[in-house]
Every structure is written in structure tokens, then in C-alpha cells.
Write a structure and sequence with these properties.
Radius of gyration: 40 Å
Number of helices: 9
CATH topology of one domain: Nuclear Transport Factor 2, Chain: A
Distance between the termini: 133 Å
Helix content: 10-25%
Length: 519
């Protein structure tokens, strides 16, 4: 450090002065002080910015013009193949081809863009393309080729069954198809969106040319629906093909000796038909307690066929059940508002405002009335019915209403109380747990799961304790008269009565024929 004393005797530190860079000192400071010299900044001229903007606009305009030209070429339809009659456009498509290379290298005909919006004039053209007429000696596929032609024998199908964990990209890789092909197909948008949700055991079929190019893909979603992706022009087009179901009407008359299910299975009925029958009459008949030997039922129902083979049973159209010499009849009816339900011949709803039993149970361990309590060991009134069932069995709300209680309630354990209007309420006790998301004040629909069978509270084993109250008074859930649901709309009642009369006459005719054939 350099320290020098001045004339006044004060010390002055000149260390900062000695370290100064005098080579870069500018003397042009208008304030008369030294300042370090800095290189002047280069300014970005506005002319440069204007030139860059003009260049970007020119490039964008060129790209737009090229895209419009490409779209116009892709969407053209050969006018020689169009017939205009009655203001409808149809496309004549050839069913046989002489050039074997045409299909592999380029499309046979110029196809319209199926993604374009449809109006009334070109809707018929699309129907012609998506639903080509069938021929006797040839199977017309979505590529409109006759597969029995020898020139197309080389284009064979390869099938792949989707395995657990497989993605569409992996399946295409196994088929030796380029990723670009998958990208082009998925880029079709909504038409091929279903390919993103493939499931195990479903099938995907490929038809690949000798050059390794994908010509056609078929994704079989189920027995009725399949997605067909076809090679057209430089890209692909997709069409969802829906097969038509043939509905046939049949009849069955069954006498019960042991149980409904045993009798139904012995008569050749499927589980779905038996369950539907139990659901229709379940408000009037307790199939676990009320069935007696000699009870009988007869039904008219649909069978669904696909390509001549039965695939499943359809809806029950009319039914009669005779239980302990009491006759119950039901007719299925769909009104003009597309509302379908089952009604009595007079138009009353078969549904009741409440389910007779809110759980699928094995047996009833305790009925309504006085009994000796299994835990407290003294006589007291049992205000409900105990349904024995496996732990975790879903418990359903017996009717529409609102939850007013959802927590522990003394010896009931975990319990739910539902208020049904101003007159009725139901209680469900000893639950193992509640349906997730339920809360007090929430509205509940009939048949909605509200909890699960358990043994919480004072309970000797898993069961549901169910109570039914009318104006706060406990009633026997097994015998209480349940209110009916709304009858058929008055606007459709005349039409329904005519239809119901015809259906019941048909059911009677079937029963007479069955009796005559089986004396």
C-alpha cells in the first residue's frame, strides 16, 4: 500500500489511483471526469426485422397453396363413375379387375374423402360405398375385391389375437409394418380412435402386399362390430361395419318342481332369460320363499341370430307366472318417447316403488316379530328381517330416496337410513362398509349399491338387518303392501291396450299349442 502525506499533514491512499487502467480512459467526458472506454453497442436496424417478417409470410403462403392443391387432388371423384338420378348420387364400383398390379400400386378408383361433411345428396353415395351388394359366388370385402379371383390369391390374410400387455405399435412391429403406417391410420381421427383401446383376445387381421405395404386391416371389436381400414390413393380410409341381427320369436312353458333356476335350465332357457323373468316378477313374488312345487310360467321372448347362428337370447316380450294359484302377467312395451318397461294387461307398472329384498341372500335367519335375542339372551321385538349372505355382498337401496343417516348407530353397527318421500323410510344395518362416495343428503336410485354385508354392531355373523317403516312405524318387509310405480302414460294407453291384448292372445295360443303337443 502507498501512503503519502500532503501539505496539510493528512495521509492520502493512492492505491486505487495506481491500479487504474489508463489505456482505456476516455477524456471526452462532458462532465470533466475520467470514465472507462466501452465499445459502442450495435443497433438492430428496423430494416432487418421487416425483411425477416416478409420472408416468413412468403414461406407460409407457399405452404398453404401447396396444401390446398394436395387436398383438391385427394378429394376428387371420377365423374365417369357417377350417375345422377332423382337428385341422388351413386358410384358404380367394379366387382372384377383385369389388372392385377392396379390394386397393389395404386387404388382401383378415386374414392371420396369420407371425413368430409355429408349432406343429403352424397349420403346415398356413402351408403353405396360402405354397404356394397353381395354376390352369390363371391365375398365382397371392404376393398371391393372378389377374393376368389386367382390374381388376388397372393394377398392372403394374416390374423393376430391381441395378448395381455400388447400395444398397437408392438402388433404392427410383429407384422413387419413401418411406424409411419400406424401413424397414418391413427391420424384418421375419430374413425380409428377405437384402435387405441384394443383388448386382449380381440383379433386384428392384416392383408399385406408382396412389397410389404399394408393394403387392408380389419379390427374385430366383437361379433357385430368391426373396423375396416383400406388403402386408398396415398393414404387410408376407415369404415365401421355393423352386422345386422335377425330376431326370431319363440315360446316356452315350464312347470317348477324344485326351483325356478333348475326348471328353467331343464327347459333349455339361458341364465339371462331366467334372471330377466325373476326381475320382472320380483316385486310380487319372492323367488326364495314363495315358490312351490307345481308353480308354472310361460313366456314369449326373442332369440338373436347372426348369419344363421344363434348368438344370444333377447328380451322377454310377454310372460305369465302362476304362483300358488295366483296369476301374474306382464307385457313389454316401448312408447313413442322410447321408454321401455313392463306393465300389467291393464297398464299398471310391474315395478313397485320398493324392492322386496335389497340383497342377494342365502336364507333368512330371523323374521319380523318377537324372538329371543341371540346376544342379549332375552325376548324382544325384532323390527326387521335378517338376510344371511356372504361378507361383502352388495346391498341395494330398495327405492328412490335420500340418505338421512350414514354412520354407526348403537347395536346396529354401521347403518344407513334412507327417506323415501314423506311416508316411507328404510334401514340397512350391520354393514361391513359403505359404498365409496356416499354422503348424507345424497339422492339414491332404486337398486343402487349403498353398502356391503358385514357383521358390525351386535351381530353373530355376516348378514343384513333390513327394516321398513311407514310413517315411522315398523312393518314386516316380507308382507307389507308395496306402492306401485307410475302406470303407463295416458297418451299411450290406448295404443298399449291394443298391443297388450294382441300379445296376451299370442301367449295363449302358444300355451294351447304346447298343451296339445304334450298331452
Amino acid at each position: 500500500m502507498v501512503v503519502i502525506r500532503n501539505n496539510l499533514g493528512k495521509s492520502v491512499n493512492y492505491n486505487s489511483f495506481l491500479k487504474k487502467d489508463y489505456k482505456n480512459i476516455s477524456l471526452s467526458n462532458n462532465k470533466g471526469k475520467y470514465q472507462e472506454w466501452q465499445e459502442p453497442r450495435r443497433q438492430f436496424k428496423r430494416l432487418h426485422l421487416f425483411l425477416i417478417v416478409c420472408l416468413l409470410l412468403g414461406i407460409s403462403l407457399a405452404l398453404i397453396l401447396v396444401t390446398n392443391q394436395a387436398e383438391a387432388t385427394r378429394n376428387t371423384v371420377d365423374s365417369s363413375n357417377l350417375n345422377v338420378a332423382s337428385n341422388k348420387i351413386t358410384v358404380e364400383l367394379p366387382l372384377s379387375f383385369s389388372d392385377t398390379v392396379a390394386y397393389i400400386n395404386k387404388p382401383d378408383i378415386e374414392m371420396p374423402n369420407l371425413k368430409a361433411s355429408l349432406n343429403d345428396s352424397n349420403f346415398e353415395a356413402l351408403k353405396t360405398l360402405t354397404n356394397p351388394p353381395s354376390t352369390k359366388n363371391a365375398t365382397i370385402t371392404s376393398t371391393l375385391l372378389q377374393e376368389n379371383k386367382p390374381e388376388f390369391q397372393s394377398l392372403k390374410w394374416t390374423s393376430h389375437k391381441v395378448k395381455s400387455g400388447e400395444s398397437l405399435a408392438l402388433i404392427f412391429k410383429k407384422a413387419k409394418l413401418k411406424p409411419r403406417v400406424l401413424h397414418d391410420i391413427i391420424s384418421l381421427g375419430k374413425a380409428t380412435k377405437i384402435l387405441k383401446s384394443i383388448k386382449p383376445e380381440q383379433k386384428i387381421k392384416f392383408r399385406i402386399s408382396d412389397k410389404g405395404a399394408l393394403q387392408e386391416l380389419i379390427y374385430i371389436q366383437d361379433s357385430l362390430h368391426s373396423l375396416h381400414v383400406m388403402k386408398f390413393n396415398d393414404g387410408y380410409q376407415a369404415v365401421m361395419v355393423v352386422k345386422q341381427i335377425e330376431k326370431r320369436i319363440t315360446h316356452a312353458k315350464v312347470v317348477i318342481h324344485n326351483s325356478l333356476f333348475e326348471a328353467g335350465m331343464a327347459a333349455g332357457l339361458s341364465n339371462s332369460v331366467i334372471m330377466d323373468l325373476a326381475s320382472i316378477f320380483g316385486w310380487d313374488i319372492d323367488f326364495a320363499l314363495d315358490i312351490r312345487s307345481g308353480d308354472q310360467f310361460s313366456i314369449v321372448y326373442e332369440e338373436h341370430f347372426l348369419e344363421g347362428n344363434k348368438i344370444r337370447d333377447g328380451a322377454i316380450l310377454a310372460a305369465e307366472f302362476i304362483n300358488q294359484k295366483r296369476s301374474f302377467q306382464a307385457i313389454r312395451f316401448t312408447d313413442k318417447q322410447n321408454r321401455t318397461d313392463y306393465y300389467t294387461p291393464s297398464g299398471l307398472s310391474m315395478r313397485k316403488a320398493f324392492l322386496r329384498t335389497p340383497v342377494d341372500f342365502r336364507r333368512i335367519s330371523s323374521r319380523f316379530g318377537k324372538r329371543k335375542h341371540p346376544i342379549l339372551n332375552y325376548m324382544r321385538l325384532h323390527k326387521g328381517v335378517d338376510y344371511v349372505a356372504r361378507r361383502g355382498t352388495p346391498v341395494r337401496a330398495s327405492g328412490d330416496g335420500k340418505i338421512v343417516h350414514k354412520k354407526r348407530k348403537g347395536g346396529y353397527g354401521r347403518a344407513i337410513i334412507i327417506k323415501h318421500g314423506g311416508k316411507y323410510s328404510t334401514l340397512y344395518a350391520h354393514l361391513n362398509g359403505y359404498k365409496r362416495g356416499l354422503k348424507v343428503g345424497q339422492k339414491i336410485k332404486q337398486g343402487q349399491t349403498i353398502g356391503y354385508v358385514g357383521s358390525s354392531g351386535r351381530s353373530t355373523g355376516p348378514h343384513l338387518h333390513y327394516e321398513f317403516r311407514v310413517n315411522g312405524v315398523h312393518r314386516n318387509p316380507l308382507t307389507v303392501k308395496l306402492p306401485n310405480a307410475r302406470p303407463i302414460n295416458k297418451k299411450f294407453k290406448a295404443e298399449y291396450l291394443t298391443y297388450a291384448s294382441r300379445m296376451m292372445a299370442q301367449l295363449d295360443n302358444y300355451n294351447q299349442i304346447t298343451v296339445a303337443l304334450n298331452p
